[in-house]
From TrEMBL, chain A:
Keyword Transport applies: yes
Pfam families reported in the protein's UniProt record: SSF (PF00474)
Secretion signal, residue range per the UniProt entry: none
Keywords, in A-Z order: Cell membrane, Ion transport, Membrane, Sodium, Sodium transport, Transmembrane, Transmembrane helix, Transport
Similarity annotation: Belongs to the sodium:solute symporter (SSF) (TC 2.A.21) family.
A single GO BP: sodium ion transport
Record InterPro entries: Na/Glc_symporter_sf (IPR038377), Na/solute_symporter (IPR001734), Sodium:Solute_Symporter_SSF (IPR051163)
Protein name: Transporter, SSS family
GO cellular component assignments: plasma membrane
Keyword Ion transport: yes
Domain of life: Bacteria
Coiled coil: none
TrEMBL record, chain B:
Residue ranges of the TM segments: 20-41
Annotated protein name in UniProt: Uncharacterized protein
Superkingdom of origin: Bacteria
Keywords for the protein's UniProt record, in alphabetical order: Membrane, Transmembrane, Transmembrane helix
Length: 562, 45
């Protein structure tokens, strides 16, 4: 990074922090601190919800996904607009009318204090650990590519958020979310524009889309109902719907965002705005990755985008094998460059047979390149068994550093920080509000004044911030980050969702049955994972179904009288 | 905590006359997006 990049990065981060603190001065009550006094308009709610969901990995991983796998990942978000509608109809009015600070407060009014405490405890455990991983995931990528010390990067990533979250609370988070989303949108749009400009002069944006299409990267919709295919229309609509419903309906980091709306209507509008914008936003982020793919059709691409790992290979006993793979890769990229030029000519002359032939060569070379990459990945793993063999997260950042102008590099690093800060701030706030409202105020000290709870909220935010940073410092022993976050979420999300499903939809089941059902289900879910009985993604559905089924059974047998 | 006004149509945007209509617009937009994506994919493949 040049001095210009460092300056852009420093100024962007400083502006976010100062703006957050200045705009949110005067949080004098818990309501102000935790819910921004329920004073925010719909666009604040909507952008805050979006900024919370879009973490740093979204902006690193999604373009990489577009590059290597095409546009089909967009289908994963098709369930989101439907979930926003269901939330607006059911969850939002209930949460607003009960005038609650956290989602778990509702569980006491529906069941009893035990169910509330158990569910909030599960949330704190899951969110506390996964926020640590959320700090570590972008930090490790930045530290690997830029050569920064991982411990300082973790501290910077998790620490600067604390500055404005502790002082300004939810209002600061919401105001900074606005800025963060503006920076992210501007920088990603600029990156997309410059990627098109980097293409050969006679290749237009539409030509680039045609090349991507012929190479199989514009695979937007898969109508086949195939349980083995991770992303298709049906898994997106059905699976995505349940996933988004559990995330937005039961995770306090999101519930805390839409409870800040002035009215039920403003909260609803914020969620519906997310429902309208999320799919197009993901489409555009993936498209940037696809454009990067097209760029590399005309230019030499690295065999493996995590350069640090290939540098290690060059100095290892596998250097010769790696060199052979590199030569194969170079020959294939030359073949690919020729095929893409043939494709361009065929497109310009409307030669359909030529397009088909060039398209077939493009797809063949793409498969051959993937095969070479698999060989290199195996060598990397042999050389360093703990190495991250997935380079999807490195594709976009490598491209940015190698080809985009100075200044924009700093801005895109700021985007990674901004996106990360957005989701981490919401997580800190949700951890603090759940700790104070559901544990401290409810179980430890219930008769103090507002000033005392405000003070405890601030200290709780600091405590959770330190905890999450410590988790991040130890996260390098957990292997693949994304998988670790997903496994952790899957262990708890299903059970928490199951409790809320019973609360909202099975009115005949009471608190005792739900409490014991949640405990039994959690043990069974952890056991299933420990014994490796099923793929971890299924644990969400299993946990939810177990809670509902066991609670129903217990209510009709052991707890019939209650 | 401050009082929340009872839910009514005050918050609705000018292009929707009821919440049901707004929900239909959100779900309809998703349907249109899926259709457009499908057409785009067919055109470019």
């Amino acid at each position: 990074m040049s001095i210009l990049d460092w300056s852009v990065l420093a100024v962007t981060l400083l502006v976010i922090i100062v703006y957050g603190i200045v705009r949110s001065r005067g949080s004098k009550s818990m309501d102000d601190y935790l819910l921004a006094g329920q004073s925010l308009p719909w666009y604040h709610v909507g952008l805050s919800v979006m900024a919370t969901q879009a973490s740093a990995v979204t902006f690193l991983s999604a373009p990489g996904q577009g590059f290597s796998d095409g546009m089909r990942f967009v289908q994963f978000y098709f369930g989101l607009p439907l979930a926003m509608v269901v939330l607006s109809v059911t969850f939002v009015p209930i949460f607003h009318r009960l005038k609650i600070f956290t989602a778990y407060e509702y569980l006491e009014s529906r069941f009893d204090v035990r169910v509330r405490t158990l569910t909030s405890g599960l949330f704190l455990l899951q969110r506390g650990l996964s926020t640590g991983l959320s700090i570590y995931a972008p930090s490790i990528i930045l530290s690997t590519i830029l050569g920064w010390n991982i411990y300082w990067t973790n501290l910077l990533m998790g620490g600067i958020v604390l500055v404005y979250t502790v002082t300004g609370g939810t209002k600061a988070i919401s105001y900074t979310h606005l800025q963060q989303m503006a920076i992210v949108t501007f920088a990603m749009a600029l990156a997309g524009y410059l990627t098109v400009k980097l293409l050969p002069e006679d290749v237009s944006f539409v030509d680039a889309l045609h090349v991507a299409g012929k190479a199989g990267r514009m695979n937007l919709i898969d109508l086949k109902f195939d349980p083995d295919s991770r992303y298709n229309l049906w898994s997106g609509l059905i699976g995505g719907f349940f996933l988004q419903l559990s995330y937005f309906g039961t995770d306090q980091s999101q519930v805390g965002r839409y409870l800040t709306g002035q009215t039920i209507g403003q909260s609803r509008l914020g969620l519906l705005m997310n429902g309208l914008l999320k799919v197009p936003m993901q489409f555009l982020i993936l498209l940037v990755g696809v454009l990067v793919f097209v760029f590399y059709q005309y230019n030499p691409s690295p065999t493996f985008f995590n350069k640090q790992e290939t540098d290690k290979l060059k100095n290892s006993q596998y250097a010769n094998a790696y060199q052979i793979a590199e030569i194969k890769h170079q020959n294939l990229t030359t073949q690919r460059q020729k095929a893409v030029i043939d494709m361009e000519m065929a497109l310009k002359t409307d030669n359909e047979a030529g397009q088909e032939a060039a398209g077939a060569v493009l797809r063949e070379t793409d498969d051959a390149l993937k095969s070479v990459k698999t060989d290199v990945t195996k060598l990397i793993q042999k050389n360093n068994p703990t190495a991250d063999t997935n380079d999807v997260n490195y594709v976009f950042l490598r491209f940015v550093l190698d080809y985009l102008p100075h200044g924009l590099i700093g801005l895109l690093i700021a985007v990674i920080f901004s996106a990360s800060m957005g989701s981490i701030a919401s997580a800190y706030s949700s951890l603090a509000s759940t700790t104070v409202i559901d544990i401290y105020k409810r179980l430890i000290k219930s008769d103090s004044d507002d000033a005392h709870y405000l003070n405890v909220s601030r200290w709780s935010t600091i405590g959770w911030g330190i905890f999450c940073i410590i988790v991040a410092q130890f996260a390098n022993q957990l292997g693949s980050m994304i998988e670790a976050v997903n496994i952790l979420g899957s262990l708890f999300y299903g059970v928490i969702l199951g409790v809320f499903v019973v609360a909202f939809y099975v009115k005949s089941i009471g608190g005792r049955a739900t409490f014991w059902s949640a405990i039994i289900s959690e043990v069974l879910v952890v056991l299933s994972w420990y014994l490796n009985l099923t793929a971890f993604l299924w644990l969400n559905a299993i946990g939810c179904l177990l809670v509902v089924g066991i609670a129903w059974l217990l209510q009709r047998t052991l707890f019939r009288a209650s | 905590m401050p009082e929340n006004p009872i839910d009514n149509s005050v918050d609705l945007p000018p292009f929707a006359r009821s919440w049901t209509q707004l929900y239909t617009i959100v779900m309809g937009s998703l349907a249109v997006e899926i259709l457009l994506f499908y057409v785009l994919m067919r055109w470019l493949s």
